Amino acid sequence: MSNLEIFHKLLKEYYSKRDRDYITPEEMNIVDGNCEYLGIPRILLMENAGKSVAEEVSRYLRKDSRNKIYIFCGPGNNGGDGFVAARHLTDYCGFEDTLTVVLLGREEFIKTYEARENFKVLKSIAHLDYRLDIREEPCLEGVLKVVREIESSEKDNIVVIDALLGTGIRGELREPFKTLVDILNRLRDRGNIKIVSVDVETRGLKGDLIVTFHRRKMENVDNRVVVKKIGIPRVAHYLVGWGDMYALSPRDPNSHKGENGKVLIIGGSKRYFGAPVLSALAASKIVDITTVLSVRPVMEALRNYPHLIGYEVEGDYLSVECIEEALKLSRDHQVVILGSGLGVNEESREFVNSYLEEVGDKRIVIDADAIKLIDYGDFEFKENFIFTPHRREFEYMGIDLENPTSLEEVKSTILLKGRYDLIFNRERIKINKTGNAGMTVGGTGDVLCGIVGALYSRNEGFISACCGAYINGYAGDMLIGEKGYYYTPLDLIEYIPKVLSMFK
User: Fold this and answer.
1) Which phi and psi angles does 103 have, rounded to 5°?
2) Is 378 a known ligand-binding residue?
3) Which of 125, 283, 441, 480 would give a disulfide with 450, using CB separation of 3.0 to 4.6 Å?
4) Nearest to residue 295, comparing CAs of 325, 328, 257, 333?
5) What's residue 64's pLDDT?
């Protein structure tokens, strides 16, 4: 089976049973970004979200009295959903009804392109629709003025839409949000108003309905929640794309040497002296410190790259005699990349198995010959391991994909390389479609494990494997235009920063 066929099989027979009905804010951000990668613009998702809010709010409108709708909007995408809802509500409201949109801030401080565009559209409508009033109220005094209007409208049917703050907000509420929430709660308790929240309730608010999108959010656990579909395809959860890349930890502009990652490469032999060098060069494009532990031929190759650190051991292959030095160096680095160019022999086999037994919970990327050398009889696929096999190497691992329940024991993340890269563990699965036929040249796998190891120094393992596959493949895709299929691993390495710079 191809990786794509394996993906379909595992998704249907195993991972579909682990699918959840809720989603975290971080996961939702990834899905949004991946929709854009698939050609579904965020502004379309906002349109569908706002429209669904308007549909639900329309159920609260009454024909026997005047309806007054107040939409309180924050400066982010939650507010953008509110702007769209207001536009659609102009079609639901009668000629005697009114719509008041209150932006808690100024137009110039609206944070996203999508929200800004929808605010502009709403303003163009307000010039012609006498029922629609748009206000910018950055201060508490202006917000209190709106609240007094609500309090004086006891004979009308009043619906308040909470489009203030979305899922990404942390910490305590600031003014004017805090006072507004307190007053709205008091008015609702007195029976004066109905409150509908967009996606999630603003912290501290207790309303009548929460209109959330795509899937229930973790905060939404009661029966006041209605989930509306807004056109997000299921594949956006399983494809590695822009959303995953934006989820990587950004580099702190105030960081110091060593704070952006330290990676140790353990590998190489008298025959395969280039593999660990390629891994080290790839990792060094991302982390601050890259170290290689290997034999003399590798150290000689490293001399051309003064920014790399080398530790030489005696012999033609790594053996148990250098275990103590390997363990000592491992303690000084966040991630170890094990396997590039080790060679398959008894010395290396003994070294690999002894090292993995003693290294503990160190983050390790296991590649190439190390995958072949592991004794898998009683081997535990630990959560801190990432494996990066191609198909033949994967066969050594003893994981039966024909029997997907065998994945229950696989805590490690596995990046199965191929035309489509498959990334999975017992909880999650994703597929990456970047890359091309030019990457069949030897050494591209060494570049990949260098990227994955570097990302793993500052990110969770699964996302590191996903984004490592994406970066490696996309670097190859960028090279197509310049060199066709005729490029080398060294060319790939030079394009790593170009890919990363696209996702600042």
Assistant:
1) -85, 120
2) no
3) 283
4) 325
5) 87
In this model, does residue 220 exceed pLDDT 60? no
Q: Any binding-site annotation on 50?
A: no
* Residue 170, marked binder: yes
Q: Buried (b) or exposed (e) across 200-210, using 16+ Cβ within 10 A?
A: bbbbebebebb
CA distance 351 to 336: 15
CATH number for domain 242-503, candidates 2.40.37.10, 3.20.20.70, 3.40.50.150, 3.40.1190.20: 3.40.1190.20
Find the mean pLDDT for residues 196-219.
91
168 is in an annotated binding site: yes
H/E segment holding residue 363: strand 363-367
Tokens 């691993």 sit at which residue?
489
Which pLDDT does position 171 carry in this prediction?
67
Task: Consult the annotation and say whether 341 binds a ligand.
Answer: yes
217 or 39, greater pLDDT: 39
Query: What is the third-level CATH fold of 41-231?
Result: Rossmann fold (3.40.50)
- Reported as a single tens digit per residue, the pLDDT across 381-390 is 999 999 999 9
Q: What average pLDDT does this structure show over 81-107? A: 96
Distances 393 to 65, 117, 367, 390 between C-alpha atoms, Å: 72, 51, 9, 5
Whether residue 377 is annotated as binding a ligand: the answer is: no
Residue 170 has pLDDT above 70, yes or no: no
172 is in an annotated binding site: yes
Ligand-binding annotation for 81, yes or no, is: yes
193 is in an annotated binding site: no
Report d(CA 504, CA 501) in Å as an integer. 6
pLDDT given at position 376: 94
Specify the DSSP class assigned to residue 239: B
CB of 180 closer than 8 Å to CB of 72: yes
Cβ atoms of 230 and 213 within 8 Å: the answer is yes
Say whether 275 counts as a known binding-site residue.
yes
